[in-house]
Structure formats: C-alpha cells, structure tokens
Design goal:
The structure holds two protein chains of two kinds. Chain A is built from 19 helices and 26 strands. Chain A is an alpha+beta fold. Chain A starts with 6 loop residues before the first helix and ends with a helix. The chains are: A alpha+beta, B mainly alpha.
Chain lengths: 614, 122
C-alpha cells in the first residue's frame, strides 16, 4: 500500500514542483554552462600560453634557460714548449696558482695583513692601501704565480669566509738557465712573448684559446663539463729550434773565458752549419738568466749577434776576392805589388801593418794586406763593389726568425766616392751584424749558396693551419719545417778556391794561426776593426772590434764559428787572431768532436784531442 | 578492468622508472667523462711540472760542471773517425743511420762494466 501513490495527490504536487524543478534546472544549466565556458576559457588561455611559450617565445626562452644553467669559459692554450734540435727542453709552461681577494668581504686586522705580507714577501703598507682603495670592488690580485709552499701557508691563514681564492695561471720556465737566453727571450706576466723566439715565434708558441662549456644546477654548482674537440684550444705541442745545447754551451763557455781574459764591452759567438744555414749556437755577453730577472744590467738584454753593427774589417776581404774572381777580373795566381807598406790612392795614403812587396792573391788574404785589397778594389770599381756587398746579403736583414735584427749600414752607391774604392775592400765604410757576416761566410763555405739562416727547425702538433705554414719534414713526418730560401753568389769553383786556398793558409801560416787544429783542416779569417770615435770624428786608436771566423773541414765544411769581441781592454794587442781566434778554435774543436766529424788530417791527433777532454 | 588499469599504471610507472634510471646513468657517465677530462688536465700539468724538474736536474750546464769537476765516472768517447756526424750531408745518410750516436749529450757514455753498478744491482 505504501508503495502506491494516488494519482490525485501526484497531480496536485507535481505542478509547483515542476515549476520549481524547471527553475532550478535552468539555473543549474546556466551554472554548468558558465563553469564549462570558464573552464574552456581557462583551458584556451593555458593552451594559448603554451603555444606562445612553446612556439613564439621558444627560442628566446631556450636562450634564457641555457644562459642560466650553461656557462662558456675561455680556455687559454698552453704555450708550446721550446726544445733544441735533440729534444732537450729549453722552455716550458707550468700551471701555478695566483692569489686574489674580495676586498668587500675581507674585514681583517692589521696583524693578519702583516702575516700575509710577510708570507708573500709583500709590503704591508702597500697591501693595506690597495685593499682600502678597492674596498668596494670584488676582485684584487694579491700576488700572482705563487709557489706550492706559499699556497699551503696562505690556506693555513685564518681567512674570513669567501674572501679569497686562487686562479690558475701559466708560468714560463727555462730549465737551462742562462743558456741561449738571448735566443729564447721571455714571456711577460700576461703571457706575451718579449724578445727572442718567444716574441718572433709567438704566433706558433701562443696557440689559440678554446671554449669549454659548463653546466650548473639551480644552486650554481658545476655539474657537468662538456668537452667538444672542435672547441678545444689549438696549439703546437713543441717548437723545435736548430740550436744544439752542448754546442751552445761550448760557445757560452768560450765567451766566459773571453770575458774573463779580455774584459770586453761585449762579445758574441755564433755556430752555424754552413750547408743548411742552421744556427747551432748563438751566445752573447753580457747575459742574464731568464729565471732571475731581479738584477739584470741594462746592456745585457741586447743580443749582440743581431742587435749590433760593426765594421767587419778584414773578415770582409774574402768576399771581394771571390767577387773579383767571379767577375773574371782577377786570376788566382796573380801577383800584386803591395808597395812596401805605403800606397797613395788619390788623396789618401794607405798603409799595411807590415811592409810587403809583391804578394799573390792568396798572400794578400793571408797577410791581410790593405794595399793589395785596395788594388783589387780599383779593378772592380764602386758599382761592382756595391754589387758584391749586395750579393753576399749585406745591407739587409738575413731574415732569421729573431726580433730586432738590424739591417747593417750600407750607404747608397751614389754616396760612395774614391775613398770607398779603397775602404770597402778592407771592410770599412759599411757595418754588418755578426749574423750577416757568418751567413755570408757560410755562402763561401757551401759552394756559393747564400742561405737564409734558420733558428726554427720545425714544429710538432696538430694545429689546423700547420700545413699552410710549413712543409712536412723529409726525415720525420711528425715535424713540420719551414722552407729554405737560397740565392746564388759566386760559382762553386770560386767559393771552393777561396776557402781551400787563401782561407786555409790564413790559419796555416797567417794571422789565424792560433786556430789551427791538428785533426782537421781549418779555414778562417781574422778581423781587427778600429771603432769610430764620435768625439774626434775619426777612427779610434785604442778601441777595436776583434773578430775571427773559422770552419772545418775545409774540403766540405760542417761547422762554421764566428766570435766577435767588442772593445777588448786587457793586454796591449787586440788583433782578432789573438783575442777571438783561440775562443773560436776552442768552440770549433769541441763541436767537431761532439758532432763526430771525420778528421781529414790526423786520426791520432783526434784521439789525443778527445782524450784531453777527459 | 582493475587488472587492465593496474597493468597500464604499472607499465607507465615502469617506463618512467626506466627513463629515470637511463637519465641517471647518462648523467653519471657524463660526470665521469668530465672527471676524466679534469684528471687529464691535472696529469698534463703534473707531467709538465715533472718534465721541467727532470730537465732542470739534467741541464747541460749542470752536467758539464760535474764532468769538469771530475765528479762523474765516464769512459772516453769513441773516435770521431769511427762514425759520422748527425749533420752529415745526403751522400753519407746511410752510413750516418748505421752509426748514429745513442747518447748525444756531451758525447760521453757510462762504462758498461762499471763494478759499482754491478754492486748496486746485487
């Protein structure tokens, strides 16, 4: 019964209820539609924003995000090592920490500053002043390139939080000390080459910086270091020089002895392989150690082999003889009247050191007769003399890879006069660098080929521009070598005759007797040039430049040595044969033994020489 | 239906966990790679430092000083006539190769039968 409802009752209540339901249903529908439309709008906004973010703004936002969690840091290329021709290390780079502070956070007392300054050998007042001046900054170098001990002691100090740090920097080191210091040069505190091959070959040594990408988290901590081989620093591993360290040391020792005995203003020695133009040694006095630059005399920076010019004197005479022979206006067997020591050449009276009568061409060089040379000069005349000086490379830099090489002094032909005809053949009225002189003598020693002297043997490493800069070495495919530039001077026959006849006789019985070596046939030429005195405007009677150039074996020279001594002061005589020849001969002999050059004279004498080095 | 829903959910969770594991492993490997590169940098620095030390100790000047002061046990060098120079010209190249010096420095060499060396070996 309860389940049955009367139709009357139903019909009575259904009308208002229907109305009410209809009303509430309309309201609900409206709400539903409102919510639905709101939701749809919201979703549309979200979708629109998503499209905006993902589509329109995506690139910019991606850039911002990348910027926030990725950093790119520049990685400087480690400068290439410099080695000698046998791979002995001449210069290398190590990483050392440098100390910096954050002045804005470094609130310390005077006692702390004093301890820090004492530890790092700094001036306390200066350090305090620096900190005060940069108080509002966040970075200040305290000391760069600390030793390991200094780093340990610095860390042990009681520093305020986040007030200091270390940054790694490159430090150039020269393990051979003062050996070849002028050739090597230096790198300054910012890593730029200054002097020597460090400067001239900086484009090979320094390399190109690379980029390293770091990824950091929300806290700023580095969580990943990305390595991209394409972005790594580009550098050559090794720059190899033509120097041979033991030969360099022979030259340095010889100069030390010269400096001790003759007390000169300056001196230099060059050892060269005349067949290739490779410089085996180049030493200069006064000198310095690149590892200790505190007390270097101001004149020690100069490389005397390329940064000075001097009148070559008699060492220049063989070139004029060779040129005259080449031009066909002189015969090897000719004899000249040397006028018993006095010869009037126009307004000028020429004198020899000793009165000579008739001298052959060979004897003119052996006795170093100025009159004989002047007469050869008269035959050549000025234009041909000028051609001779140019042909042997004087008046222009040799082109060696060293900075600051001087041109020498060679006046234009139109400024030459009758004096020049007598002076030039004697090695006066022009000035040369020691390197120019030995390069020209190398041309005589190698059969007349003037070769650009080389200090760079080659490079090792895989920098991308290697093939555009160098050739691959025939001996070692890992080494890239520079091209050799050769020009002709005189014929092979003429060069051989000058070397094997007059220049050998100079050593056998002439002014270079002190350079005679028993096992090898040595050729050479002495030079004693009066220096110009600016006070009197004439040649000085007391100041000389003594030089000696020699090589061996004469039949096929392997080694050429030049020693130039500027203003020797001890003793009475300052001839090149006395001052420079013994030192040059010592270097030559040691080098020949070291290089195992076959004796062309006496094997027993060679054994005795070697035994003497025990 | 519940089984299907559960299986689907399990699959989604499993794939997510797998993805997380792979990502984690990927990060680990990249971190290891970074560490290896860092170690290589450190070793390169150490190599440069040790090479410098080694070359300082074996500097030609220093060795020569020892030899001059008679502080080194050395045998006299071979005769130059027995061999050729490293600066030999092209015609002597073959001969130069055969007789190339093994100890170039200063042209001296340790005697092979040095009794003190034998003692130290024992």
């Amino acid at each position: 019964m309860t389940g049955q409802r009367s139709p009357g009752l139903h019909s009575e209540t259904s009308a208002p209820m229907k109305e009410s339901l209809k009303h509430s249903g309309r309201r609900t529908n409206w709400r539903l539609r409102f919510i639905a439309s709101l939701m749809t709008t919201l979703w549309l906004v979200v979708v629109a924003r998503l499209v905006h973010v993902q589509g329109l703004q995506s690139d910019e936002l991606a850039r911002v995000a990348t910027r926030q969690h990725r950093i790119e840091v520049e990685v400087p290329a480690r400068p290439a090592d410099i080695v000698d021709r046998n791979g002995k290390l001449l210069a290398t780079t190590v990483v050392t920490p440098s100390l910096f502070v954050n002045p804005s956070r470094l609130e310390v007392d005077t006692e702390f500053l004093k301890r820090l300054a004492d530890l790092l050998e700094l001036d306390t007042d200066n350090l305090a002043e620096q900190l005060e001046r940069y108080r509002d900054k966040q970075f200040l170098w305290v000391k760069r390139r600390l030793t390991d001990e200094e780093v340990d002691e610095v860390i042990a100090l009681d520093w305020p939080d986040s007030s200091y740090g270390f940054r790694d920097e490159f430090l150039r080191q020269y393990p051979q000390g003062r050996l070849a210091s002028h050739v090597l040069g230096l790198r300054n505190i910012d890593g730029d080459g200054a002097g020597g091959v460090e400067q001239s070959l900086n484009y090979l040594i320094q390399g190109r910086s690379g980029i390293r990408r770091l990824v950091r988290d929300a806290m700023g901590r580095i969580v990943e270091v990305s390595f991209d081989p394409r972005l790594e620093p580009q550098r050559f591993e090794t720059v190899q020089l033509t120097l041979d360290l033991p030969v360099q040391m022979f030259a340095e020792k010889a100069l030390d002895q010269v400096a001790e005995v003759w007390k000169p203003e300056a001196a230099c020695a060059i050892v060269m392989n005349p067949q290739t133009g490779e410089v085996l040694a180049m030493a200069s006095r006064p000198t310095y150690s690149p590892n200790d630059l505190a007390n270097v005399p101001s004149n020690a920076w100069r490389n005397q082999a390329i940064n000075i010019v001097y009148e070559p004197g008699s060492t220049f005479k063989p070139f004029i003889v060779a040129w005259a022979l080449q031009q066909g206006i002189l015969k090897p067997g000719e004899v000249f009247d040397c006028e018993n020591g006095e010869y009037r050449m126009g307004p000028r009276l020429l004198r020899d050191h000793h009165p000579y009568g008739r001298l052959s061409v060979t004897d003119i060089l052996v006795k170093s007769s100025n009159i004989g040379m002047a007469k050869i000069g008269q035959r050549l005349q000025n234009p041909s003399l000028y051609d001779a000086t140019l042909a042997f490379g004087f008046g222009r830099p040799t082109g060696i890879d060293l900075p600051g090489e001087l041109h020498g002094l060679l006046r234009p032909l139109e400024n030459w006069n009758s004096y020049s005809t007598g002076s030039i053949p004697m090695g006066q009225e022009l000035a040369v660098t020691p390197l120019q002189l030995i390069t020209a003598h190398a041309a005589l020693a190698n059969g007349g080929r003037l070769i650009t002297p080389r200090i760079l043997y080659g490079v090792q490493g895989n920098r991308s521009d290697r093939d555009s800069l160098f050739l691959t070495s025939a001996d070692n495919p890992d080494v890239a070598v520079p091209a050799t530039i050769v020009t002709g001077t005189v014929s092979e026959e003429v060069a051989e005759w000058v070397v094997e006849e007059p220049m050998v006789q100079v050593v056998e019985r002439g002014t270079g007797r002190r350079a005679k070596l028993a096992p090898w046939t040595v050729f050479g030429k002495t030079g004693t040039a009066q220096k110009f005195d600016p006070e009197t405007g004439t040649y000085s009677e007391t100041r000389y430049t003594s030089s000696f150039v020699c090589g061996a074996p004469a039949s096929h020279p392997k080694v050429l040595v030049l020693v130039v001594v500027d203003e020797p002061k001890s003793g009475d005589s300052h001839g090149g044969g006395l001052v420079a020849a013994p030192a040059a001969a010592e270097v030559l002999q040691r080098t020949l033994v070291y290089l195992r050059v076959r004796p062309d004279r006496d094997n027993r004498a060679a054994a005795a020489v070697i035994q003497s080095y025990r | 239906m519940f089984f299907r829903f559960g299986a689907g959910l399990f699959l989604v969770v499993l794939i997510s966990l797998l993805g997380i594991a792979i990502e984690k492993r990927n990060l680990d490997l990249r971190r290891d790679l970074s560490r290896q590169h860092y170690r290589m940098d450190v070793l390169r620095d150490e190599h440069a430092r040790l090479r410098l030390k080694c070359q300082q100790l074996a500097a030609v000047d220093r060795l020569f000083e020892t030899v001059e002061q008679d502080g080194a046990e050395l045998s006299h060098p071979e005769l130059p006539a027995e061999a050729t120079s490293p600066l030999q010209d092209a015609s002597d190249e073959g001969e130069a190769e055969e007789t190339q010096r093994r100890i170039p420095l200063l042209f001296f060499q340790k005697p092979l039968a040095d009794p003190r060396m034998q003692e130290s070996d024992e």
